[in-house]
Amino acid sequence: MMNPDSVAEFLGGVPLLQRLPSSSIRKIAEIVKLEHYDEGEFVIRNGESKGVYFILQGEAEVCGNSEEDIRPEFILKRYDYFGTGAPTSEQQADVIASSKLTCLLLPSEHCSLLQPKSIWNADEKQGTCAPVESILHLDPIEVNLFQGITLPSAPKFGKMFGGQFIGHALAAASKTVDCLKIVHHLQAYFLLVGDYHIPVIYEVHRLRDGKSFATRRVDAIQKGTIVFTLLASFQKKEKGFEHQEVVMPPAPSPSTLLSLEELRERRIIDPRLPRSYRNKVAAAEHVPWPIEIRFCDPSSSTNQIKSPPRVRYWFKAKGKLTDDQALHRCVVAYASDLMFVGVSANPHRQRDLKISVLSLNHTMWFHRHFKADEWLLFVIESPSASAARGLVSGQMFNQKGELVVTVVQEGLLRVGRTPQTAIRAKY
């Protein structure tokens, strides 16, 4: 008899199940039955309907083919699955144990757990999840292939938002690893400008699966072209040495600060800003962001006034997120690109000067667990800008002062140019 934790750990290694919400895997771990078979014994016969089998130990043969010999692709091993109820067209054939065989059986009446409405929450009801959780939803196509779309309510900025690429790609990678392994590092490259009018295919490459670590590469594809790529490393939780030298800087409580919506209203009547800019802000269609942002210094909210290359703001997801650390890290990855590389343009801003800012690369290190629907302080500074490139680094702290994430990004800074919405080279 296996304990549920050991069962959940095994199920987390089954590629079919990795795309499920972690809550679904835990439920399946409580439901599955342990089945033992001797060599030569029938596991399931053609036409029978018992459920889905996951091979824990041993091997099995799929029989009933026109060829007399058993070809290699019809030998089933550890982590393979078969039976009725799987979301693929399984063989209508006999399955026989070719050695001593141990399987976990998910009975047919519970196979609906394999088809959740969301990759994050098996119990999701329409319209009840946080806005950013809906934005970060992906549709599984194959085990290593996902599709993402840009929702009407999602930020766009005239092109596909870079944070959406990061969040979607990390979500795709997270849905191909054991749910006990959580991302600790990612490196991303923005190759081409994305078109938010068409879906994006996220293709995951399984580079390594170890006992403690796993590595994935994700290519974002539009019209057959790779427009974005991400490399991510995942680690199973373990105890080790800990220290933190950096101290969270003093910051006012987020409850005392204005929201972006309130700051927008103030900008419209701010006499320091050009009338043309204020009229443009007032006339523009306002689409609320799925992330709540509150600047520690309200003057940071305008791009018309020269300011130091540093910013501090509190942020969190609007609404309540599903309790899944993988989701919370995807949300922070998404939010990290909202107001980041533009800080490197702050010393060069002036009235009516257009500065084109495009992300080139993005790196994140996740140090500690956190909740993305609770306030996090993002401390950003730009140490340098040169050769039309700006560099920014940022540290995220929880309200206890613990460093939870470090971020570094390089972006393209140009005067008087705006990015094209079509898919073209960024340079």
Automatic annotation (TrEMBL):
Keyword Lipid metabolism attributed: yes
Pathway membership, UniProt: Lipid metabolism; fatty acid metabolism
Domain of life from the UniProt record: Eukaryota
Subunit: Homotetramer.
Pfam family, one: Acyl_CoA_thio
Alphabetic keyword roster: Hydrolase, Lipid metabolism
CDD domains xrefs: CAP_ED (cd00038), Thioesterase_II_repeat1 (cd03444), Thioesterase_II_repeat2 (cd03445)
Known catalytic reactions: a fatty acyl-CoA + H2O = a fatty acid + CoA + H(+)
Subcellular location: Peroxisome matrix
This protein's record includes keyword Hydrolase: yes
EC number(s) stated in the UniProt entry for this protein: 3.1.2.20
Protein family per UniProt: Belongs to the C/M/P thioester hydrolase family.
GO cellular-component term (any): peroxisomal matrix
The protein's name: acyl-CoA hydrolase
InterPro entries assigned: Acyl-CoA_hotdog, Acyl_CoA_thio, cNMP-bd_dom, cNMP-bd_dom_sf, HotDog_dom_sf, RmlC-like_jellyroll, TesB_ACOT8-like_N, TesB_C
Cyclic nucleotide-binding domain: residues covered: 16-83
One of the GO biological process terms: acyl-CoA metabolic process
Native organism taxonomy: Eukaryota, Viridiplantae, Streptophyta, Embryophyta, Tracheophyta
GO molecular function, one term: fatty acyl-CoA hydrolase activity
